[in-house]
Amino acid sequence: LLVNASKELGRPIPKTLFGIFFEEINHAGAGGLWAELVSNRGFEAGGPNVPSNIDPWSIIGDDFSLIVSTDRSSCFERNKVALRMEVLCGSEGTAICPAGGVGVYNPGFWGMNILKGKTYKVVLYVRSSGAINVSVSLMGSDGLQTLSTANIIASASEVSNWTKMEVLLKANATNPNSRLQLTTTRKGVIWFDQVSAMPLDTYKGHGFRSELVEMLADLKPRFFRFPGGCFVEGEWLRNAFRWKATVGPWEERPGHFGDVWMYWTDDGLGYYEFLQLAEDLGTLPIWVFNNGVSHNDQVDTSSVIPFVQEALDGIEFARGDPNSTWGSIRAAMGHPEPFDLRYVAIGNEDCGKKNYRGNYLKFYSAINKTYPDIKMISNCDGSSRALDHPAHFYDFHIYTSANNLFSLAHQFDNTSRDGPKAFVSEYAVTGKDAGKGSLLAALAEAAFLIGIEKNSDVVEMASYAPLFVNANDRRWNPDAIVFDSSQQYGTPSYWVQRFFTESSGATVLHTTLKSNTSTSLIASAITWEDSDFDKTYLKIKVVNFGSNQVNLKISVDGMEHNLIQLSGSTKTVLTSSNLMDENSFQEPTKVKPAKTLLENAGKDMDVILPPHSFTSFDLLTE
Ligand code: AHR
Predict the structure, then answer these.
(1) Residue 138 confidence (pLDDT) above 80
(2) Which ipTM did the prediction report?
(3) Residues 358-406 pLDDT 10s
(4) Mean of the per-residue pLDDT values for the chain?
(5) Would you say the CB of residue 478 lies under 6 angstroms from ligand 1?
(6) Burial of 331 (C-beta count, 10 Å sphere; 0-12/13-18/19+)
(7) Alpha-L-arabinofuranosidase C-terminal domain: which residues (predicted)?
(8) Residue 95 near residue 65 (C-beta atoms within 8 A)
């Protein structure tokens, strides 16, 4: 492998090259990244126009002690359903309530992870026909272990109208499979609505589950595409993600049923929270909005103006003056400063749809007129032929077999260097090569990313998909990060992305691979500066996709700096004994990069590439 490190042959890589794509799929947000512990906190999961579905709330008590139903008496206009609990036991002449009382419990998203010593804030809205004494408790899944409890006691006049109550519960034990209970031993009728339980410590205090965000932060993402994917489109337009229903006080959000991935979200993780997370991660948000097209229905271009206005309003919400109509709502939510929204995607995977082009042009011209600096992303692939409409970027999605993705490392070699740049916003190996996240899949992805790095004059951004899966609701395999209520691990695909964290904004060098095994090898080289320590690194990455070990000679030419063989030069290898090896909760690091000192670091090095491996040689330069 010849690496020419001379500046003349090098090319700057876009600062935005590698980022992340978050979609509400697999309970990635609700029951995942968003730290809310209660599932279906407003009892709305059936939607506003169908009989309520209180699932997964369950009843504690029997027909003689309790009648639980729902009605539309909530004080919140956009989510009218409330839980009605008629307690039959507990007064003279009636049955005695069971010890512990009767009521309801919520198991969260396959169990709440309650940790000893941590405090949880429970907020709920309550109304009653009389005085109340309600126990609010964090319990084990069997309802026998009490991790924390507090009582809400109020006179009849205090709760004759809807009243907000808050309690702090400090856990005396750890249980990853806990539940929240609301119980009483007092006869009467009580209504509950908008019951929330959140840990007090969340990422930067903004409501995100820290361990999961830290895994994202470790990827050093340069952009954050959200909130979908198909989630943005919906099977039907009525179930698409519409940002206006996801902002403002959380209690007032209607929530919605995502009919592509088939689950309800309370939309606590809404448009504002996505923008906040992008800011917290130091990335640029890329907002994907619905362009009047879903999987099964579409708005005619002649009627699409309300959707266009919704997008304009969304941009104003993100970055408008705090006194503007929508900017003021953002300011009231706690962020008077604008968010740094520079990119929007007009729809998702809608290019072939009848009304896409017509609708797109309406969005493009309206946004361009009002916000000329906003960069817009078209759904139509411009990698092999020119787009027939204006765009700053075109979206490119690829889900395929490992062999195919390996060869697609050359996908952009012959793409026209003129015209809009590519945004590879979704890529992954899927199907039997991938399982739930195999080494094989990850190696092909590594090769594909090397190809992108080398073609970063035409590819401006790239992100893997999907990012997250809650192991209890696998709607899509594989995914980068697997979690449940209390644990998480990266798949090999996640670890491959970690090899590219220094690439955005670095310089890609000219490399020539002269090897008789070059059909199974692909390599790239970059130089990047570690400004914190004032050091410059040469990073050479090689995928060996073949089943034989390769002895490779690496020669570096044209270096301004001398290579040095200090402890700072390292080698990191991702491989495993079996090509289909995966990580799991039992073996979360079975396939994980291993870093060692590179003892023969120099301008000429003989290195060994294990079969089926991805290696990064990181040479510290003087
Ligand atoms: O990443 C999963 C899905 O794949 C996305 O929702 C969609 O854009 C693509 O089809």
Answers:
(1) yes
(2) 0.99
(3) 999 999 999 999 999 999 999 999 998 999 999 999 999 999 999 999 9
(4) 95
(5) no
(6) middle
(7) 425-613
(8) yes
| Rounded-to-10 torsion of CA 287, 290, 296, 301 | -140
pLDDT digits (tens, 9 = 90+) for 545-593: 999 999 999 999 988 767 666 668 999 999 999 999 999 999 999 999 9
Sort residue 210 into left (φ over 0), alpha (ψ -120 to 50) or beta: alpha
Short-list 518, 537, 556, 543, CA closest to 610: 543
pLDDT band (50, 70, 90) for residue 622: confident
Of all protein residues, the one whose alpha carbon is nearest to atom 6 of ligand 1 is: 229
**Poorest-confidence range of 41-45, 156-160, 531-535?**
531-535
Cα 339 to middle of ligand 1, angstroms = 26
Domains of the chain: 2-13+507-621 (2.60.40.1180), 58-199 (2.60.120.260), 222-379 (3.20.20.80)
Ligand 1 contact, 347 CB (< 6 A): no
Name the 3-class secondary structure at 497: helix
Q: Is the CB of 23 under 6 A from ligand 1?
A: yes
Is pTM beyond 0.95 here? yes
Cα separations (Å) of 564 from 538, 598, 604? 11, 11, 12
Pick the closest to residue 464 from 250, 219, 121, 109 (CA basis). Answer: 219
Please give the average per-residue pLDDT across 200-217, as a whole number: 98
Q: How far is CA 252 from the centre of its chain?
A: 23
Residue 31 Cβ < 6 Å to ligand 1: no
Ligand 1 atom nearest the C-alpha of 228 is 6
Task: Say how many C-beta atoms besides its own lie within 10 A of residue 169's C-beta.
Answer: 21
Whole-number pLDDT of residue 47 = 67
Q: How far does the centroid of ligand 1 lie from the alpha carbon of residue 217, in Å?
A: 23
Pair 352, 360: CB distance under 8 Å: no
